[in-house]
Write a structure and sequence with these properties.
This protein has about 160 residues and is α+β, with helices and mostly antiparallel strands. It has one domain: Beta Polymerase, domain 2. Helix content is about 35%, strand content about 25%. It is built from six helices and nine strands; from the N terminus they run H-E-H-E-H-E-E-E-E-E-H-E-E-H-H. Helix 5 runs antiparallel to helix 6. The longest helix has 20 residues. The radius of gyration is 16 Å and the shape is globular. The chain starts with 8 loop residues before the first helix and ends with a helix.
C-alpha cells in the first residue's frame, strides 16, 4: 500500500496540533526528539482513542491510504503516504513486559513538548520515564537497550540542569 502524494511528518504534526488531537510520538522517533544520535524510518503515534475517527479522517483527507476503515474497532491502524508508513496506536492502556500498566491519559498528562523554533512546530512526546516504560512493551532488542541507555543519560543531564 502506498498513497501517491507523500505527506510529511511535519504536516501531520501541524495538523494534529491545529485540530487539538491528543497524540504522543513514541518509539525511536521520540528518542531522537530527546537528542539521541540515532536514525529511524519509523513514525509511531499513540493517539487518544477518543480522537480516533477525527485523526483517521484527517489523515485520509491529507491523502494517506489507511489499512482499515475509519470506523474500525481495531486499536492499530497504518497510514501510508508515498514511501512513508505511519503506525497509529489507539489503545487506552498498554502493559509492558515488566507488568507496568501505561495509560494514554497518564502518559499524556506527564508528556513533554519539544519545540523547534526554527521550524515553528512543536512535538508532544512521553516523559522520559514513560518512554522507557513504553520501550519495554515487547521483549526488547539491541536498539531498545541503546535507546533506554540514552534516555537514562538524558534524564541525568536534565535533572542536573533543573537543580
Amino acid at each position: 500500500m502506498e498513497a501517491e502524494k507523500e505527506i510529511s511528518f511535519f504536516e501531520i504534526i501541524q495538523s494534529f496540533n491545529s485540530l487539538n488531537i491528543q497524540y504522543l510520538i513514541i518509539g525511536r522517533r521520540a528518542v531522537i526528539l530527546y537528542g539521541a544520535p540515532v536514525m529511524t524510518a519509523d513514525y509511531d503515534f499513540w493517539i487518544n482513542s477518543n480522537d480516533k475517527e477525527k485523526s483517521l479522517t484527517l489523515l485520509q483527507n491529507l491523502g494517506c491510504e489507511l489499512s482499515k476503515d475509519i470506523r474500525t474497532r481495531s486499536p492499530i491502524v497504518f497510514a501510508y503516504s508515498g514511501t512513508k508508513k505511519y503506525d497509529l496506536f489507539f489503545h487506552k492502556s498498554i502493559t509492558n513486559t515488566e507488568g507496568q500498566i501505561i495509560t494514554f491519559d497518564r502518559c499524556y498528562i506527564n508528556s513533554d513538548i519539544i519545540e523547534s523554533k526554527k521550524d515553528k512546530i512543536y512535538f508532544r512526546v512521553p516523559s522520559i520515564d514513560d518512554l522507557i516504560k513504553l520501550k519495554k512493551i515487547r521483549s526488547y532488542n539491541a536498539k531498545d537497550e541503546q535507546d533506554i541507555e540514552f534516555l537514562l543519560q538524558a534524564k541525568k543531564i536534565l535533572h542536573k540542569k533543573n537543580t
